[in-house]
Fold:
Amino acid sequence: MDSNNVVFNKDDGVAIITINRPKSLNALNYETLKELDSALDKAEDDKDVKVVIITGSGEKAFVAGADIAEMKNMTPLEAKKFSEYGQSVFRKIETLSKPVIAAVNGFALGGGCELSMACDIRIASKNAKFGQPEVGLGIIPGFSGTQRLPRIIGTSKAKELIFTGEMINSDEAYRIGLISKIVELSDLIEESKKLAKTIMSKSQIAISLAKEAINKGMETDIDTGNTIEAEKFSLCFTTEDQKEGMNAFSEKRTPKFGK
Ligand code: CO8
Structure:
């Protein structure tokens, strides 16, 4: 699928989804969200895809937000529908059975910061800038930024960022735990693929169950979270990967998962 605003590439088990509207700094209009939605379905359905990387085209922006020109004259009902649609697409990323890495290559503002936060792991280039500038436009984050930012970095810093609308650089994003790695822009995709390869060398079923346990656990109390973990842990013991992983350990060899 090579659509206009979202490009889907596959490379050795890794799907690379690129938001491709460089003239608008990859701003998310409705059409782009729809194409992203389809690209995610494609990544989920393709058995060869083990890990997904989401990035932006060009050297300036990951995604500079939802498309302000498109939002400008929306009615409250249209705004609600747009917000709910964006939330559902980003939720699809979060609940994808495969790990998703955000390779943040520049501005990640508003909907762009929200897109990165729906991904499992965020790696950013040195020039990346993060922020939720919505209050400067007379609106609030609408693609789950008010929900995910405090869950990731805590309420005090999240409120500071959302109330001031200020941008932070990648060093600050790393310091507050919004991203897990900073790399040179020229190395961003290679470093993301390297991480993807390391993840792919492990049991994909186990990773998928771990993702579900972490995500569901973050949405509930610890006792319920522990119940979820024990269920997923037990499920691992119904898989070939568990047998292979433990046999390989006993036999002092590298496991071959996904047989
Ligand atoms: N939407 C539409 N177009 C954009 C956007 C955007 N978010 N960001 C940049 N562009 C366009 C500019 O209009 C410009 O187009 P043109 O060349 O035709 O004038 C082009 O991209 C290049 O941008 P700049 O000339 O502004 O580039 P600079 O290097 O001077 O500045 C910035 C870069 C700082 C990133 C600047 O472009 C900027 O501030 N952009 C807007 C950032 C922003 O406010 N983002 C948040 C948007 S709101 C949002 O995301 C809410 C999400 C939830 C929505 C819920 C639905 C109701």
Summary: Residues 204-250 form a domain with the Lyase 2-enoyl-coa Hydratase; Chain  A, domain 2 fold (CATH 1.10.12.10).
